[in-house]
């Protein structure tokens, strides 16, 4: 039973309420990254390149000002390795100064910065070496982390090494599958990335290679050690894409088998960390023959995912169960791709209510960071709009949505809703 303080669940002292972004998706012109190469290849299957994105490389002060004015007290953003080290061994002092200024800017505005070192994109030179599977990958990533220590010492409390390593591992499996079909290297990567977010892909066909999993864990631990040595008091972890596998009757063992290589092995690796990030959006039902499509009457989001807000609470509970006591949870992503902002409010209210129930059951959750602060580049298209703040693609004007004001109000009031807000628009009656 969720206890209430006034109309909702009272937040504990120090609980963070904010929003998240990633560098490549909002900064623009990340020209030294592997994703930039992928997007701009003449034969790329990617629908549209990132281009200027939201021009947040230049407009980050405005973004932070808006978040603070709306009532939020934290902001998750990433440092772009391809900007810090555009060529192997050559550090851009200007890029380091840029991200140091961002951390200082967040702290000065009263926003607790949560900083991610790797959010899907790598320098092209790193990918050319073989990426995470290269023999020297862990050492190279640890060296990059040591460079980032100069940025983090400006006032960062929480740092994530790698965003969604389980999705990174899945993408490697998809590339291997593409190679078997004879696609050229750039095209296969583009198709793989596009398929990685498609609901129709059966994970049974793309189980991550155990060596890729081990490589990512090695890199994470090497970077974590480097950060703890160089940034006293920093809390280091990584974030996992929680799939919320729900077995149909009789498919419990199948769901467990699905979860281990695609999620739980990465959660178990977090047992040595200071915190773990939960990133949940929807559920995945598992039947005797594998993954099942959403129910016929389910509402779908712009990404084709089932509208299922309760995934958040279920993901937090599962993460806490696998990681065990002593490692607090930070919700680093949760949101919905929709062009109907009333559905964003309804979704988020139900998600937060499920989070409150998990917290009331005793799970140590330290914050909630909504995805995303801005409408941004969603890895191939600008069509899926996750943002609390709309961005004009031509003028880059920022316009806060009602959902931003509503969620910022909860942050000011220091509470989570116990149920969906009154007056929420009902779900559509058809798909």
Automatic annotation (TrEMBL):
UniProt xrefs under Pfam families: Glyco_hydro_1
Coiled coil regions in record: none
Gene3D superfamilies with a match to the protein in the record: Glycosidases
Keyword annotations: Glycosidase, Hydrolase
PANTHER family: GLYCOSYL HYDROLASE (PTHR10353), LP05116P (PTHR10353:SF36)
UniProt family annotation: Belongs to the glycosyl hydrolase 1 family.
The protein's name: Family 1 glycosylhydrolase
Gene source species: Streptomyces castrisilvae
């Amino acid at each position: 039973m969720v206890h209430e303080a006034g109309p909702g669940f009272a937040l504990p002292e120090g609980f963070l309420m904010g929003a998240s972004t990633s560098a490549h998706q909002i900064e623009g012109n990340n020209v030294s990254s592997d994703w930039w190469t992928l997007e701009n290849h003449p034969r790329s299957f990617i629908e549209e390149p990132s281009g200027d994105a939201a021009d947040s490389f230049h407009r980050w002060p405005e973004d932070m000002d808006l978040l603070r004015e709306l009532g939020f007290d934290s902001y998750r953003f990433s440092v772009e390795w391809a900007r810090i080290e555009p060529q192997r061994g050559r550090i851009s002092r200007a890029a380091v100064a840029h991200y140091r200024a961002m951390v200082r800017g967040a702290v000065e505005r009263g926003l607790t910065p949560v900083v991610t070192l790797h959010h899907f994109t790598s320098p092209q030179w790193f990918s050319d070496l073989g990426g995470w599977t290269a023999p020297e990958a862990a050492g190279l990533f640890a060296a990059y982390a040591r460079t980032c220590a100069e940025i983090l010492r400006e006032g960062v409390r929480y740092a994530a090494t790698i965003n969604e390593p389980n999705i990174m591992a899945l993408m490697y499996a998809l590339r291997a599958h593409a190679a078997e079909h004879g696609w050229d290297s750039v095209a296969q990567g583009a198709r793989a990335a596009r398929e990685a977010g498609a609901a129709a892909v059966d994970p049974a066909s793309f189980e991550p290679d155990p060596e890729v999993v081990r490589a990512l864990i090695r890199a994470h631990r090497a970077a974590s050690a480097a950060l703890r040595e160089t940034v006293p008091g920093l809390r280091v972890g990584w974030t996992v894409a929680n799939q919320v596998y729900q077995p149909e009757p009789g498919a419990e063992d199948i769901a467990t088998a699905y979860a281990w290589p695609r999620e739980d092995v990465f959660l178990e690796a977090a047992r040595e960390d200071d915190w773990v990030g939960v990133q949940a959006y929807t559920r995945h039902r598992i039947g005797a023959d594998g993954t099942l499509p959403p129910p016929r009457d389910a509402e779908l989001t712009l990404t084709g995912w089932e509208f299922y807000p309760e995934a958040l609470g279920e993901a937090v509970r599962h993460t806490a169960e696998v990681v065990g006591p002593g490692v607090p949870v930070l919700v680093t992503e949760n949101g919905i791709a929709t062009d109907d902002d009333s559905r964003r409010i309804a979704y988020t209210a139900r998600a937060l209510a499920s989070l409150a129930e998990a917290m009331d059951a005793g799970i140590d959750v330290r914050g909630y960071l909504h995805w995303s602060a801005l409408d941004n580049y969603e890895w191939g298209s600008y069509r899926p709009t996750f943002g609390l703040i709309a961005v004009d693609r031509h003028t880059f004007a920022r316009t806060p949505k009602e959902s931003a004001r509503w969620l910022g109000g909860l942050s000011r009031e220091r509470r989570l809703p116990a149920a969906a807000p009154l007056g929420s628009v009902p779900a559509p009656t058809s798909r």
